[in-house]
Amino acid sequence: MSEAFRDNAQQSRFELTVDGAIAFVAYRKTPDTITLVHTEVPPELGGRGIGSKLARATLDAVRAQRIKLIVKCEFIQGFMKKHPEYNDLLT
């Protein structure tokens, strides 16, 4: 399985490309915060843990940017409940 993660700032989303398909987390950004609004994983990538890999990579990228996080996306909210080590990112 080949995969690559990137911040596609032009489309305001973090992307994880896996075997040619793109899963993403859409966001809105201000100078001080980033709001994660929606996660989408293509059906052909379902059941492979891609959503969790994408969530972890996204939250690590937010941490690296040193900005505060607002989460409107239910998938990311659920991930953070299982992984409280990311709660310090929240506003």
TrEMBL record:
Domain N-acetyltransferase: 6-91
SUPFAM superfamilies named among the record's database cross-references: Acyl-CoA N-acyltransferases (Nat) (SSF55729)
Alphabetized Gene3D superfamilies for the sequence: 3.40.630.30
A Pfam family of this chain: Acetyltransf_CG
InterPro entries: Acyl_CoA_acyltransferase, Gcn5-rel_NAT, GNAT_YJDJ
PANTHER family: BSR4717 PROTEIN, PROTEIN NATD1
Protein's recorded name: N-acetyltransferase domain-containing protein
